[in-house]
Design a protein that fits this description.
InterPro entries: DNA_bd_Ku70/Ku80, Ku_N, SPOC-like_C_dom_sf, VWF_A, vWFA_dom_sf. By secondary structure, the protein is α/β, with parallel strands linked by helices. 26% of the residues lie in helices and 22% in strands. It has helices at 47-65, 105-114, 124-139, 164-174, 189-200, 227-242, 253-257, 351-356, 396-406, and strands spanning 24-31, 70-76, 94-101, 145-152, 177-182, 245-249, 270-276, 279-289, 321-323, 326-331, 338-342, 345-349, 365-367, 386-391.
Length: 407
């Protein structure tokens, strides 16, 4: 039905150590067919509306965690078709809403307006092919933590069974995790608990726990088995074959994605001097832990968003200085001078005087004042940021001499 190898852009395997990666690349493949427009039990919203809310919460959390994370969105079952594989009737009704890029609030707004239930239908495996292809083209041979989230009710018949092997093979090459978010899946409570455990671990590279009670997709089907039940088995077996990921419950989507994860801290070593008595030793100081607060989101226009340009909704500040006595005239920056407030007036300071008032910074040093017993230090002193001090490589001999003096 389609040429082989449509997923592959490189045959080399990503070998970077995932623990050293700080950037995440996440692709959402969202089913927007008519089955997702069914109201949720006991609620006035549709399955798709609740799923979009959970996805938007995850996007916002990634924006808060780091500026390096990237998000892409593929919609399956749209009225129109917009993807690079749509040729000669293939991959119809699949729309790439956003290519992999740094997320913005404009993307969450576009999800709310564009991800609506449609009467058109498409094969969710076709959407998964496009999502994995997007991930491969953007991140192959680069240092990323890669994840694909397939959000579906799985009520439409899956025809593209032959693409399963190429999808699994490409996920292995990318070392990517596959999460199937099942809407109204007939999952056991044990399977749901395992899915929560993998996602809550906060490590997209973590391999999923054993999926022992999941049926294999090619096992003989019962005569009374519905299309949905057969699709669930198939998707569960794909997750198992991928080796990383889990099957998650759609009902817990909002709760799972609201769990913000800690930001990773990269250790930057700064060279300084440690003074012990009359000895001065070169040392390296770096932060072991760092206190952090939630960052504020950027302001963006809600009324306009171009999916082809993620920065189209950005807002820029235009600052102008004007004379209070003549507001019509703009004062250029070259005509501005610094000043200090003194009572109700400002005292202007020239650039020469401003430079003369600066205090020359001295090299930071650490001084060992005294030794004490561990029991004499209150526990509250260990709260907050923690810094480590290690000898500099070029001062090893000085430290050896210090050890002899102290002994």
């Amino acid at each position: 039905r389609r040429p082989k190898g449509c997923l592959g852009v490189s045959s080399s395997r990503a070998t970077a150590d995932s623990r050293a990666m700080s950037k995440e690349a996440i692709v959402f493949v969202i089913d927007v067919s008519q089955s997702m427009g069914v109201p949720t039990p006991g609620g006035d919203r549709t399955r798709l509306a609740e799923a979009v809310e959970g996805i938007n919460l995850l996007i916002q959390s990634k924006m808060l965690q780091s500026k390096q994370h990237e998000v892409g969105v593929v919609l399956c079952g749209t009225e129109g078709t917009s993807n690079e594989l749509a040729v000669a009737g293939q991959y119809d009704h699949i729309t790439v809403l956003a290519q992999l890029d740094r997320p913005s609030m404009a993307l969450t707004t576009a999800l709310e307006t564009e991800a609506v239930p449609s009467e058109a239908s498409s094969d969710i495996i076709d959407g998964l092919v496009i999502g994995v292809l997007m991930l491969s083209q953007r991140t192959m041979n680069k240092k990323y933590l890669r994840s694909v989230y397939l959000v579906t009710a799985a009520e439409n018949r899956i025809e593209s069974v032959g693409d399963m092997d190429s999808i699994i093979d490409q996920l292995h090459k990318l070392e990517a995790s596959l999460f199937v978010v099942g809407i109204n899946f007939s999952m056991t409570s044990a399977r749901q608990a395992r899915g929560r455990a993998v996602l809550a671990a906060g490590d997209a590279s973590k391999e999923s726990v054993e999926l022992g009670d999941m049926e294999i997709a090619d096992a003989p089907a019962d005569k009374d088995e519905t299309v949905k039940e057969g699709n669930e088995k198939m998707l569960a077996s794909v997750v198992e074959a991928a080796g990383k990921g889990a099957v998650l419950s759609g009902e817990d989507l909002v709760e799972l994605f609201t769990q913000l994860q800690c930001r990773s801290v990269r250790a930057t070593k700064n060279k300084t001097v440690l003074c012990i008595g009359s000895q001065q030793l070169d040392v390296l100081v770096f932060s072991r832990s760092k206190r952090t607060t939630a960052a504020s989101l950027k302001k963006e226009r809600k009324t306009y968003y171009d999916p082809a340009d993620p920065k189209s909704a950005g807002v820029k500040m235009d600052r102008a200085y004007r004379n209070p006595k003549n507001p019509e005239v703009e004062v250029m920056s070259e005509s501005l001078v610094k000043g200090y407030r003194y009572g109700t007036a400002y005292v202007p300071i020239s650039e020469e005087h401003s430079l003369a008032m600066k205090i020359e910074s001295e090299r930071a040093t650490l001084t060992l004042v005294n030794f004490t017993r561990r029991t004499a230090i209150q526990h509250r002193h260990f709260l907050g940021e923690t810094k480590c001090v290690i000898p500099a490589e070029d001062s090893a001999r000085s430290w050896e001499g210090l050890g002899e003096d102290l002994s």
